[in-house]
Design brief:
Blueprint lengths: L21 E2 L1 E8 L8 H10 L8 E7 L6 E6 L2 H4 L2 H5 L5 E7 L14 E5 L2 E8 L5 H10 L9 H9 L13 H12 L4 E5 L4 E5 L8 E5 L2 H5 L11 E5 L10 E6 L4 E6 L2 E7 L10 E2 L1 H6 L5 E2 L2 E2 H15 L6 E4 L5 H11 L7 E3 L12 H5 L1 H5 E3 L1 H4 L3 E6 L8 H10 L4 E6 L12 E2 L7 H4 L5 H5 L3 E4 L2 H9 L10 E2 L1 H4 L10
Parallel strand pairs: 15-25, 18-21, 21-22, 22-24
Antiparallel strand pairs: 1-23, 2-5, 2-11, 3-4, 3-5, 6-7, 7-8, 8-9, 9-13, 10-11, 10-12, 13-14, 16-17, 19-20
Length: 507
């Protein structure tokens, strides 16, 4: 039995207030291309996690290895930039490391669930970081408990960690067989996960065979090559990187190489990145990459499937204009993830784009409101109306998605109270109607506005003059248009269509 290394505190933090859909985790890993590098690897991992902060704002963990038989571990609740001191980061010695930012789906929000998990296996220490949620977590937990495996956390990520400590069916007559161990784990878990598995001298990067959660690889370039002071050479590489999103590469001087393929097992060492195996999907089913990564979760400068997320969001805006045009004076958006869609909507209909709301970037997430008045002023605290831009005018407000719909009525009321003649809502994705079992925090069906209010009454619910959503076919068209024909692709639309690639299994 492997035991998870305990963390230093048992303080439980509860989160209150409004929430919609949330991505649950971000992964980042790095292996130096040579020992004794002239850069501080732990600082680059820290910077990489800052770039993934939008994927998890609850906790952060970093584990490094390579300069001794021990792993260096730092974990904390909170945001990346405030979680660790400079001394903490400097203490993370080594030539390779992995990091993790987290929200919770399965498991409480406390320090025992902070990843990466570190365990002792028969082949030495192993650290594991996971993005996703297992559809069969409960049966797996029951199976492990029946076999006498003690569990130290309430996270389904620990189930993966424990499975990786099991000897593969083919045995290990010639020493460690990590490909066999990983394949055995993948046969037990199916979906949903992207994984980083770190040993003392290498990292294994894995995506489930459906490719539901993202993972990509890049390489750290010499500073002179990245800044253009000398030409980049094909063999330029100071470190190999693997991350949930490519947006985190550029700030540290790294270059996107490609996505990890669905079902792929990659071995990353100082000598390079090696594809060791691709585990096929059951019955040759299509991939099921989460389509909401394009709609909302990912940063717009991230590349998925060979295309930039911002480009997909612009095409969603264009498609929305084709499906639901409206006669107004200006196009605007709720700052700021829907801005690419809004600008393309405006361009397609030849209507001026103009901001109508100024976002207060320093309010942040308010988990406990101190009084009733401040609770009721939620939208007013976050947005200031740019009255001169819309006074007496008809507005169409573009949003990327509406989940609970708690804030939209307040935004419409704010704009009309400040002088907007009409406020129309256009949503650059279909209605969210179903829960997700694969790593996205979505409220229950009963909490989703699309299930609470009939579509023909939703405008009245928001106080808007009209509300229209992009069709599912329109979203699919916008996403697939930029994917190469010779690239296998497929997308999970379960939260929109109710069609799940894999069913959730309970006890």
């Amino acid at each position: 039995m492997a035991s998870v290394v305990p963390t230093v505190s048992e303080n439980v933090i509860t989160f209150g207030g409004e929430s919609g859909m949330r991505e649950e985790c971000g992964l980042f890993g790095m292996v130096a291309a040579r020992s004794g590098t002239d850069f501080n690897l732990s600082h680059l991992i820290h910077l990489g996690l800052v770039g993934l902060q939008h994927r998890g704002q609850e906790s952060v963990g970093i584990v490094t290895a390579g300069q001794s038989d021990r792993f260096c571990v730092r974990k904390a609740m909170g945001l990346v930039n405030s979680a660790f001191s400079d001394e903490d980061i400097a203490s993370l010695k080594g030539d390779l490391g992995i990091g993790h930012v987290r929200y919770s789906t399965q498991g409480l929000s406390d320090t025992s669930n902070i990843q990466p998990f570190v365990v002792e296996s028969i082949h030495g220490l192993m650290a594991v970081a996971h993005n996703g949620e297992l559809v069969n977590a409960m049966p797996l937990k029951k199976k492990l408990l029946k076999h006498g495996v003690g569990l130290s956390t309430s996270s389904d990520s620990e189930l993966i960690t424990q499975l990786l400590t099991h000897t593969p069916d083919c045995g290990e007559p010639n020493g460690a067989n990590w490909v066999g161990r990983i394949k055995k784990m993948m046969q037990e878990t199916v979906t949903s996960y992207s994984l980083l598995i770190m040993l003392k001298d290498r990292i294994w990067a894995v995506r489930d065979s459906y490719g539901n959660r993202p993972l990509c690889i890049g390489k750290l370039l010499p500073t002179d090559a990245f800044t253009g002071k000398r030409p980049e050479l094909s063999d330029d590489c100071e470190a190999w990187i693997v991350a949930s999103e490519s947006c985190t590469f550029h700030p540290m001087g790294a270059k996107y190489v490609r996505d990890v393929l669905p079902g792929e097992i990659l071995e990353i060492t100082k000598d390079g990145i090696f594809s060791r195996c691709i585990v096929p999907r059951p019955e040759a089913q299509p991939p099921a990459f989460c389509i909401f990564e394009y709609v909302y979760f990912a940063r717009p400068d991230t590349v998925f499937e060979g295309q930039m997320v911002a480009s997909v969001r612009r095409r969603c805006g264009k498609q929305l204009a084709e499906e639901w045009p409206v006669n107004v004076d200006l196009v605007s958006t709720v700052p700021e993830s829907a801005t690419p869609a809004a600008m393309e909507y405006a361009n397609a209909l030849n209507i001026p784009y103009m901001e109508v709301l100024c976002k207060n970037r320093y309010v942040g997430r308010t988990f406990i409101q101190p009084c009733t008045r401040l609770r009721k002023l939620g939208v007013a605290k976050k947005f200031g109306p740019l009255v001169d831009n819309f006074l007496g005018k008809r507005i169409v407000l573009i949003d990327d998605s509406i989940v609970r719909g708690n804030t939209m009525a307040a935004i419409v009321a704010l704009l009309k109270r400040c002088g907007a003649k009409e406020v129309h809502i256009r949503v650059a994705s279909p209605p969210v109607k179903y829960p997700c079992y694969m790593g996205i925090n979505i409220p229950t069906r009963e909490e989703l506005i699309a299930n609470m209010v009939p579509m023909d009454q939703i405008a009245k619910e928001f106080g808007a003059d009209s509300v229209k959503y992009l069709s599912l076919e329109g979203l699919k068209k916008a996403v697939t248009e930029g994917i190469s024909e010779d690239q296998e692709s497929g997308h999970c639309t379960a939260c929109l269509s109710g069609e799940y690639p894999v069913k959730k299994l309970d006890w």
